[in-house]
Amino acid sequence: MRVAAIQLNSTSDKARNLGAAERLVAAAAADGARLIALPEKWNLLGSSAELEAGAEELDGGPTLSAARSWARGLGVHLLAGSIAERQPGRDRLFNTSCLIDPAGETVAAYRKVHMFDVDVGGVSYRESEHEQPGDELVVADVDGLEVGLSVCYDLRFPELYRILAVRGARLLTVPSAFTTATGRDHWEVLLRARAIENQAFVLAANQFGKAPPHYDSYGRSAIVDPWGLVLAQAADGEGFVAADLDLARLASIRTSLP
């Protein structure tokens, strides 16, 4: 299976973000990708107030309606990174990653479990002030390949990925807005570690560059194999990387090094 990771420099301009995403998803599909992943908050990356104002419900919102139409039109599976999800009756948002099939149907939704409440690079992030954690881990099927869903800060919690692997995941998705302050030292190391310890492929689409009010994302979107080898890594800027997943190699690794 050929997969692709889209790298964006999203801001609070939703129309611009969706236009860039549509162009790159189409380019990745033309390159032969069967599963295409977008990064975290790909439709809107901004202040807490902007995220609140731009949040959408999963059914009927313009962002996922567009993503479903792209998947259907291109005949691909599309991991719609994550978006700020609004639910009626909830006072805080969810950070939700949706998997869309080639028929344009949302077949899985994972709500980020680990909130990004940290102090790094001179910035205090308090994700839990406007978002609440999910409480369910998700493994979904893509053409017979079991895919375990996660989002960004989850990457630092190996227990989550072990559970996904025990539940059968052979590919782990990590849509992210991983900061430059931590990414330069930790991003690739953590992606490779999650791949090696779970003997699974990792598909990690990351944001890149600066966005108001304080975002500075590392980029280096990557695809990693179960041996921990980086099959593809994005250069700076917007674009995509793609690689073919050798599922026979995965099976061989799990057999030879149980």
Describe the structure.
The chain is of the alpha+beta class. It contains 6 helices and 17 strands. Strands 1, 2, 3, 4, 5, 6 and 17 form a 7-stranded mixed sheet that branches. A 6-stranded mixed sheet has the order 9-10-11-12-15-16, with helices on one face. Strands 7-8 form a two-stranded antiparallel sheet. Strand 10, helix 4 and strand 11 form a beta-alpha-beta unit. It is globular and about 50 Å long. The mean pLDDT is 97.
Helix content: 25-40%
Shape: globular
Radius of gyration, whole Å: 17 Å
Low-confidence stretches: none
Q: Could you give a short account of the major beta sheet?
A: 7 strands, mixed
Q: What distance lies between the first and last C-alpha atoms, to the nearest angstrom? A: 23 Å
What is the N-to-C succession of helices and strands? EHEHHEEEEEEEEHEHEEEEEEH
Average predicted confidence as pLDDT: 97
What structural class do helix, strand and pairing data support? alpha+beta
In total, how many beta strands? Answer: 17
Strand content: 25-35%
What is the tally of helical segments?
A: 6
Q: What labels would you give this structure?
A:
258 residues, alpha+beta, 7-stranded mixed sheet, 6-stranded mixed sheet, 6 helices, 17 strands, globular
Question: In short, what is this structure?
Answer:
By secondary structure, the chain is an alpha+beta fold. It is built from six helices and 17 strands. Strand 10, helix 4 and strand 11 form a beta-alpha-beta unit.
Please render the helix and strand layout as text.
Layout: E1 2-7, H1 14-30, E2 35-37, H2 48-54, H3 62-74, E3 77-79, E4 83-85, E5 94-100, E6 106-111, E7 117-120, E8 123-126, E9 139-142, E10 145-149, H4 158-166, E11 171-173, H5 180-198, E12 201-204, E13 208-211, E14 215-218, E15 222-224, E16 230-233, E17 239-244, H6 247-256
